[in-house]
Amino acid sequence: MKSYLIAALAVASVAFAGAAQADEAMAKEKGCLGCHAVDKKKMGPAFKDVAAKYKGDAGAQATLTAKISEGKGHPKQTKASPEEVSSLVKWVLSL
To answer: What is the dihedral of CA 35, 37, 40, 46, to 10 degrees?
Structure first.
């Protein structure tokens, strides 16, 4: 029983790590990395700075998704679907 639990946790951690990589690749594909970087300011703020700014803010996911999707305080994202924008915001906030 214990070995099954350990195996399940190992699979889950690998799947989670793969999802984080997929979101960084998606950020590149959708053009986010043209203005942002994960750990340094470019034209836009570093993703880690965004995560720090919104840490503990329960409404951050919805706020940032709306800003990016609707072009309010951020250039409107036309290369990504609303679901992709939401996924990217979730990834950025996890940094």
So the answer is: 80
